[in-house]
Amino acid sequence: MSFDFDLLKELTEARGVPGYEDRIRDIVRRELDGVADELRTDSMGNVVATIEGAENPDYEVAVAAHMDEIGFMVRHVTDDGFLQLDALGGWDARILRAQRVTVHTDEKDVPGIIGSLAPHTQDEDEQGKKDEVHDVYVDLGLDGDDADDLVSVGDQVTLDQRTERVGENVTGKSLDDRVCLFAMLEAAKRIDPDVTVHFAATVQEEVGLRGARALGVDLDPDLALALDVTVANDVPQVSDEADYVTTLGEGAAIKLKDGSVITNPNVHKRLRTVAETEDIDHQLEVLPAGGTDTAGFQNTHGAKPVGAVSIPTRYLHTPVEAANGDDIDATIDLVTAFLDSEDGEHDYRL
């Protein structure tokens, strides 16, 4: 892996649920300080780093990747000291059994566990019960009074997981979307653009693309490109070719559509041309469901040409999300080459 694994590890292991992306925001500011001509944060917490174009500065491109990860908010502390949770983002509650978590209080980070009853103590009804997030409890190992003194309603909860190399892949929590945030940061460090480029680290994507929708108004770019992960169903559990989306190791994914957007054909055609010209491995993505920040820019400030580049990722919205190292490199290369070749003269009208 030729990229900065230590930075990727730092980004993915840091904690930041929707609306509380502070720790990620600090890393983004640090990495872009001295790289951008202007660095600013808005009242929602979006970070925008602007690199002025050398030849055509009035033509503006926005590149977005979101900082937030799925997590939880404490909604109640029981008399016995257990925490009830409210989901921030889309969870499959089945994967929450027997997980370690961290509760982020105003004073400190507190370790906790989501337990799972021993199977030999459950009857058939309990074993067959469908898991729901509202049935999940966090065990702090404290009595009710101590838990109530330490934790407040509204505190955030994230899963614990290290980021590791596994063969040719990287695995950990919150690759969605920190691996694309990482790719955006690396591209920002490499480009020497003719046009002005705004690199936007957005907030609250996992709860409705809220940061990107606000930025679509504030920035009003001529062209927008979003970076996010996408589904890789290249695993034994998925045998039906109808469920195919992308495959790990086949390169950056150029998005044609997802559940929130149909990308501009002229934008995705140019992305393909750049990839072919620069000999960058790539594949095409048609994602049946799910949305990305791409949609946040498409029509918020009138009709805009939008495109998207995705990193294929297995096991999305779990603590063991996995992406291929070569695909990460290809995404950085494609975004860099696309931005460096944008002169503001390409016609994206249909």
Automatic annotation (TrEMBL):
UniProt GO MF annotations: aminopeptidase activity; metal ion binding
Needed cofactors: a divalent metal cation
Keywords: Aminopeptidase, Hydrolase, Metal-binding, Protease
Protein's GO biological process: proteolysis
Cofactor: how and how many bound: Binds 2 divalent metal cations per subunit.
Catalytic residues in the record: E205
Sites where the protein binds Zn(2+) 2: D176, E206, H317
InterPro entries: Peptidase_M42, Peptidase_M42_aminopept, Peptidase_M42_dom2
Binding site residues for Zn(2+) 1: H66, D176, D228
UniProt similarity note: Belongs to the peptidase M42 family.
Protein name (record): M42 family metallopeptidase
Organism: Salarchaeum japonicum
Lineage: Archaea, Methanobacteriati, Methanobacteriota, Stenosarchaea group, Halobacteria
